[in-house]
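Researcher: I'd like a candidate sequence for this fold, 405 residues long. If you have to choose between options at a position, lean toward the conservative one.
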């Protein structure tokens, strides 16, 4: 058969072969495996055609080209099946992702209707976490395809979802000073007298927002509006929800034993509510990164006044709430919240944080060598009183309680 007739025969057989040879390969094989096998056979058929033309025998050429056309039809069918399988898988993944988002949104709405702050926080993080993941995948897909309008749209959606999620997660991330562990923590009632009662241990670390632990700690300091679920910042006296006012551990749960011995502090007392302070979340963020510290502003031992000391000069012009900048806090005095028995937080731990923050500021060249170090303050005792003085004979006698924590 002449060459032009062979080619004409191949063209006429093409559509029929595409239909009839769709399931030439076994149905147990995946679409990708079928496509690979079809491509290998087509390459072999092409090589056989070249060899047949080299022999000059037209019957061999006709047979080789027919086999090549069949293998090409098989390859086309395998490619179509592969594309359909990929499309089906992609659609299935999209449907599953949308179903998860819809389910998370339903749970979030139910949590908001229930009014349970802990459930709201968990459902919020779950919903917006899925939205972040969805927007990121859509953005990456648009980047691969070069769809500029979708790139801009999904980039904005991704940033918006991350911003919504960060309202809950940023303040909870352990940063610098705040390295928290949330395992093997027990729950007991708040002690009425910290000198005799067991230490108050909390089930979930304080840095988790919108939960019963946050309410418990704020209630211990008398800084909770339970009906509105608002907590007051102990420095600015501003009220806010869990996205605005968060908590900070003065000393982290992972503090080495050597530092605890230096501070005369039992490791179990790291879970005490006196090791926590409610702060606006931007102030908390600056506190744990050692860009500011709390120093004593008292003129004598009878006063319990404190103030914010800004160590990072660039922090002064940053806003902590609305139009208020950190510079407006510098120099203002305040008192720390107290518990029902009159005791306050572990101020010697605040003093230790101030000393370490100043050392960090020296390394970062935030302060000059001539700048005075923060004054060491706080009582070395676990209580806030010193109840003895030396008498004329060199002994000790009772004296009035002096607040020196």
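Model: Candidate sequence:
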């Amino acid at each position: 058969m002449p060459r032009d007739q062979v080619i004409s025969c191949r063209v006429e057989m093409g559509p029929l072969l595409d239909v009839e040879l769709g399931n030439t390969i076994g149905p147990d094989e995946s679409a990708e495996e079928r496509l690979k096998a079809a491509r290998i056979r087509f390459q072999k058929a092409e090589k056989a055609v070249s060899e047949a033309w080299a022999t000059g025998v037209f019957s061999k050429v006709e047979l080789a080209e027919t086999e090549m056309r069949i293998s090409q039809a098989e390859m086309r069918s395998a490619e179509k099946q592969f594309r359909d399988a990929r499309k089906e898988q992609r659609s299935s993944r999209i449907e599953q992702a949308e179903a998860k988002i819809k389910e998370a949104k339903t749970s979030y709405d139910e949590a908001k209707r229930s009014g349970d702050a802990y459930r709201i926080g968990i459902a919020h993080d779950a919903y917006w976490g899925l939205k972040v993941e969805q927007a990121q995948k859509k953005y990456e897909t648009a980047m691969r395809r070069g769809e500029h309008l979708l790139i801009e749209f999904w980039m904005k959606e991704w940033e918006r979802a991350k911003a919504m999620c960060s309202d809950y997660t940023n303040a909870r991330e352990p940063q610098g000073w705040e390295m928290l562990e949330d395992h093997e923590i027990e729950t007991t009632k708040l002690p009425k007298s910290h000198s005799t009662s067991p230490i108050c241990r909390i089930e979930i670390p304080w840095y988790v927002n919108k939960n019963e632990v946050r309410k418990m700690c704020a209630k211990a300091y008398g800084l909770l509006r339970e009906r509105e679920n608002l907590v007051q910042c102990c420095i600015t006296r501003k009220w806010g929800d869990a996205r605005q006012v968060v908590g900070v551990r003065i000393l982290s749960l992972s503090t080495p034993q050597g530092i605890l011995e230096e501070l005369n502090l039992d490791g179990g007392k790291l879970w005490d509510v006196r090791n926590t302070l409610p702060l606006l979340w931007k102030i908390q963020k600056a506190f744990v990164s050692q860009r500011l510290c709390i120093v004593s502003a008292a003129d004598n031992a009878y006063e319990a006044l404190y103030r914010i000391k800004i160590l990072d000069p660039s922090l002064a012009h940053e806003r902590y709430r609305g139009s208020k900048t950190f510079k407006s806090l510098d120099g203002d005095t305040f008192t720390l919240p107290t518990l029902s028995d009159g005791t306050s937080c572990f101020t010697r731990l605040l003093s230790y944080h101030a000393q370490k923050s100043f050392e960090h500021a020296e390394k970062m060249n935030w302060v000059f060598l001539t700048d005075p170090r923060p004054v060491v303050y706080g009582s070395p005792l676990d209580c806030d009183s010193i109840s003895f003085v030396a008498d004329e004979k060199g002994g000790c006698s009772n004296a009035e309680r002096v607040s020196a924590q």
